[in-house]
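OP here, attaching both records as promised.
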Amino acid sequence: MSSTNYQTHGFVDPAQAEDHFSQQFDMSNPEHARTSYQRLMHQHTKMQFETATASSRRRSPNPSSGSNDMASLSTESSRGSVGSMG
């Protein structure tokens, strides 16, 4: 599937996207078109998660050090909210 830009002046043109979809998928068999599109979107999402995971690993400290650099929540009790009613 080619990467085509469906934007016109910064806005997505749904008619162009719809035309492209019908060119890529067999609309005479809607069930097959749906499952093909679903499979394609699943693969796309999987790639996005893998990319995000790899990026996250590059940013995080060395996991073998055993330290947890995440911020801890404060144990202070709440002092209530200050607001005005009027």
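Record two, same layout:
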Amino acid sequence: MNTVSLLLVDDNAALLNSLSACFAARSDISLIGTASNGVDALEIIERDRPDVVLLDIVMPRLDGLGVLRELARRECHPRVIVFSALKNDAVVNRAVELGASYFIVKPAEPQRVCEQVMSIVSDGAPLNLFERPQADEPSSYARWTPDERVANLFLSIGIPAHVKGYQYLREAVRMVMEDHDVINRITKELYPGIARRYGTSSSKVERAMRHAIEVAWNRGRLENTNQMLGVKLFSERDKPTNGEFIALIAGKASGE
């Protein structure tokens, strides 16, 4: 793999120093600089054209969303990995809409962040986040929590975080990961269980899930979805059912 140029952007000086030390120790990363605010970050991006930017959201002068918004107007388009403690659905969804490729939630150990960044960029393909490692390679994916795996699978496929179906699908995947057989009782147990938790009806849960899947398919990330799942299962006209989608994501997030 060619050396990847990286810019670190965070207003936490101690964290910035720790991350810098981790990345500087790698031969496959060229750390071109650091910035503590969005204005300085944009200047460095324009001047040095990094391949990847690890970007915080809450910063002085110009926040991370402002940086993403400005980059969308410019010719320079590095791959942006957001690294933030703001993990609510609205922030994640807005960052993705503005062009972020990935979202890593703080707090996280600097070494783990380094491994995740390299996992993301290792094959050079945007959003292809879940390639299985070779047998002799250490797997950072194996150390991710189930919630991290599911959230980033949804992000990669294009499930919008602001729609109700996102929460319902995430809960359904969690249920299936805990009890695989519940997928065979989708109408009698899975939909009603989610409906009770969110104070709605089974039919609304089912429709919201279907809508979220259809929105993702209409976003045109089909090739990426098939790559992540390791086989060409779907076409533009061949969308999975709710049950098929939930089972596939649960299996992938479980490492099956």
